[in-house]
Amino acid sequence: MDERTSTERARYDFKKAMQDIVDLKGRGTELISVYVPPSKQISDVMSYLRNEYSQSSNIKSKSTMKNVQGAIDSIMSRLRTYKSPPPHGIVIFCGEVPKAGDQTKMVQYVLEPPEAVTTFFYRCDSQFYTEPLLGMLQDKKTYGLIVMDRSEATLGLLTGSKVIEIKNFDSMVPRKHRQGGQSAQRFERLIEIAAHEFFKKIALNATEAFLERGEMIGLLIGGPGSTKDFFVKEEYLHHELQKKVIDTFDTGYTDEYGLRELVENAKSAIVDIELMHEKELIQRLLTEIRNTDGGLSAYGEEVVRGATKAGAADVLLLSEGLNERRIYTKCQNGHEHSFTTSSSPDRAECGVCGSPAEIEKDIDLVDDFFELADQFSTTVEIISADSEEGEMLMKAFGGIAAVLRYRV
Ligand code: ZN
Predict the structure, then answer these.
(1) 39, 59 contact by CB (below 8 A)
(2) pTM exceeds cut of 0.70
(3) Distance in angstroms (rounded) separating the CA atoms of residues 311 and 213
(4) Cα 360 to middle of ligand 1, angstroms
(5) What SS3 class is residue 365?
(6) Cα(195)–Cα(215) distance, integer angstroms
(7) Segment 253-295, tens digit of pLDDT
(8) Judging by beta carbons within 10 Å of its beta carbon (0-12, 13-18, 19+), is residue 87 exposed, middle or buried?
(9) Which DSSP symbol is given to 25?
(10) 203 to 172, 198, 250: CA distances (angstroms)
(11) According to the model, what pLDDT value does residue 68 have?
(12) Residues around the ion ligand 1 (C-beta < 5 A)
């Protein structure tokens, strides 16, 4: 699986699991959440859990006690498969949740979060403890920020929704008050020289702060008046940074508050950039579809599945809003069958002979496509559900489309 596709899958799976987890509630205080940071020894976690297990024998309700102990058991056997925690640590949610009727079922989610777990944490509650993970759902994209005029400049970073100030400095550009004896012309010239030096200083600091940041998507530049535009137009910045300038935006201030103003005013430009990639993919699909013969396009679950299995799919475009399951069954007559359904069934009938069939695999539909795509080096792109393009993918094409390598 190429790196982009595997990151895309990890992100999709994490987001999907989180959607399920936040809604789960236990009958009693019996849902267990364990956060293990990457630096923690698994053996330490095990002895902590053994202690919790023996403590739980004090729980008054017999059924709660049984469920808590069952969950701890299950977490421990899962942890036994690890020699040490993965690079970002591990988060496990486990416990009995109600299902139809009077029944309960045990659920266990094992997550390797997109950002590192910072502290060890154990909690037994009627809900899973998810707060530390919710902030990780946002895509943490980074932008460089500069706010400036002729007298002050501030450099900063926007990461996710966090604004961080890197550096603030003043210029030596004289105020527009001429000293007695100086000619107006000479004074103007001094101002220009000082301003030029200040712009060079801003550019130098920007190189230091931003050039090595490969993850930085773009540079936003703000400030009052036209100074910032002059700075961009005259190309003071290092040429690599100059290429990353997204646009200039008006702000009233050039200090840390100015950085916040800049982010506020650049918001729509930022959203546009992040949706651009998805837009381009959907445009590519639509261009193919407009060809009289349908071009190199496929859409609809079965058609796309067929094309992928034939090795003909280059890129799969799957909507984040799909929310379906793919079920694989096998009956006593040896028929293997699969079908798509909106929720996990308790039992199934063979699609070939109609006799009762064993459910061999019950997997999220998007994950099913990820696995299929992996066999044929097909790239998978998840398209967000709330963009205009995402809505079109969902409504017009059932949330599943592909750009093909060749026509099938
Ligand atoms: Zn059968």
Answers:
(1) no
(2) no
(3) 37
(4) 13
(5) helix
(6) 31
(7) 999 999 999 999 998 888 777 677 788 888 899 999 998 888 8
(8) exposed
(9) B
(10) 16, 9, 19
(11) 95
(12) 331, 333, 335, 350, 352-353
